[in-house]
Amino acid sequence: MPKMKTKKSVVKRFRKTATGKLKHTGAARSHLLSGKTSKRKRKMRKGSVLAPMETKRLVHLI
User: In the predicted model, is pLDDT for residue 33 greater than 90?
Assistant: First the structure.
């Protein structure tokens, strides 16, 4: 049986941590930033960890 191919779109959006969780950056950081408050933009800088159920669904695609 051949190996599963990597889903390139998933690889671009998520990074695997040492413990097996998936990190990602939030949406809404690329454009229309003048309408967002400084506080909101500052909070969007930090990445976040994907929920466990979503991790379970996506981890085999990487």
Answer: yes
